[in-house]
Write a structure and sequence with these properties.
By secondary structure, this protein is mainly α. The chain has two domains: 8-62, no CATH class; 68-277, no CATH class. It has helices at 8-15, 21-33, 35-44, 47-62, 68-75, 80-87, 94-111, 115-124, 127-134, 145-150, 155-178, 191-204, 210-232, 239-242, 248-277. Helix 9 (127-134) packs antiparallel against helix 13. The chain is elongated, with a radius of gyration of 29 Å. The N and C termini lie far apart (70 Å).
C-alpha cells in the first residue's frame, strides 16, 4: 500500500520531461503501484508528447534488424526499400547458403574419388543457381511475397534483381568449390550450362510461376545429361571427354542458348514494362 503520493509540482516537471533520470525513474517506479498518481498523470501529461514517445518505442521494437546482406547492399548505395526486398530473398538466407555449401562440399569430396565424381559435380552445379532462382520470388515460396506485391516495384523487376544476386552468390560459391577439383579447365565446364539454364528459367518465369519454370528447366537438364551419357557409352577414353555436354561443342551450344535466352529476356522485359505503363 502506498502511503505517499508524488508532489504536484514534481509531477508537473515529470510530465514536461524536466526531471533528471534518477528522479524520473523513482516516479515511474511509484506510478506502477499507485493508481491515484497514474490517474493524475493521465490528465496532466502532454498527450502529443506521449503519443510521439509511444510511436517511437513501437517503431524501434517492431522494426526488423537489417540482415547482413541488406547492410552490404545499403553500404553499396542501394536504396533502403530495394535492399530490404532483396535481403528477404529465401535463397539468400543463411540456412539456404549453408545447405548449398554442405552439398557442394560433399560433391567436391566425391570429385576427388575419380572422373565420375567430377562428372557428378559438373552435372549438379548448374542446378544450384537454378534452384535458388526458382524460390527467389513467388507465392508459396517467398514469406514476404504479399509485402513484395504491395511494394512500389513491379514483380518482374524484383524477380530480376533477386535472381541476379542469387546467380552471383551461387557462382561465387561454385567457383570457389570448383577451384579444388582435380580436372583442370573442365572444372569450369559447369559455368556456361549454369548461365544458360538460369537465363532460360528467367525468360520462362515471365510467363509462368518462377518455381515451375525452374523445375521444368531442371527436368530438361537431366534429360540432356541422360542423352549425353547414353551417347558417351559408345565412345572410348575418359568419361569426361566423352560427355559432349562438357566438351567444346557443348560449351558453344550453351553459350548460344544463353545468348538467345538473354535476348528473349530483354524483349520480354520491354513488353512487360510497356504493359505496366499502359
Amino acid at each position: 500500500m502506498n502511503t505517499w503520493h508524488v508532489d504536484e509540482r514534481l509531477m508537473h516537471r515529470y510530465d514536461e520531461g524536466e526531471l533528471d533520470p534518477a528522479n524520473a525513474a523513482s516516479i515511474e517506479a511509484h506510478l506502477v503501484g499507485c493508481a491515484a498518481c497514474r490517474a493524475i498523470t493521465a490528465t496532466t501529461a502532454d498527450a502529443e508528447r506521449l503519443d510521439a514517445t509511444w510511436l517511437h518505442i513501437v517503431d524501434t521494437i517492431d522494426q526488423p534488424r537489417p540482415k547482413a546482406l541488406e547492410r552490404v547492399l545499403r553500404a553499396l548505395g542501394t536504396r533502403d526499400h530495394v535492399a530490404r526486398l532483396i535481403g528477404a530473398t529465401p535463397s539468400l538466407q543463411l540456412s539456404w547458403l549453408l545447405s548449398v555449401a554442405f552439398v557442394l562440399g560433399f560433391a567436391a569430396a566425391g570429385a576427388h574419388i575419380g572422373p565420375r565424381g567430377v562428372l557428378a559435380f559438373l552435372s549438379l552445379a548448374p542446378l544450384i543457381p537454378l534452384a535458388g532462382i526458382g524460390v527467389a520470388y513467388g507465392p508459396g515460396v517467398d514469406p514476404a511475397y504479399e509485402v513484395s506485391v504491395a511494394a512500389p516495384m513491379p514483380g518482374f523487376r524484383l524477380l530480376l534483381l533477386r535472381a541476379g544476386v542469387v546467380l552471383a552468390t551461387s557462382t561465387v560459391l561454385l567457383g570457389a568449390t570448383a577451384w579444388w577439383l582435380p580436372a583442370g579447365w573442365k572444372s569450369a565446364a559447369w559455368l556456361l550450362p549454369s548461365l544458360g539454364l538460369s537465363l532460360v528459367s528467367l525468360a520462362l518465369g515471365t510467363f509462368v510461376d518462377p518455381l515451375r519454370a525452374a523445375v521444368g528447366v531442371s527436368v530438361g537438364w537431366v534429360a540432356v545429361l541422360a542423352v549425353a551419357a547414353r551417347a558417351s557409352v559408345r565412345g572410348s577414353g575418359p568419361i569426361l571427354d566423352r560427355m559432349v555436354v562438357f566438351n567444346t561443342e557443348g560449351q558453344i551450344a550453351f553459350a548460344i542458348v544463353a545468348g538467345i535466352a538473354a535476348i528473349a529476356l530483354v524483349l520480354r522485359a520491354r513488353a512487360v514494362g510497356s504493359a505496366v505503363e499502359g
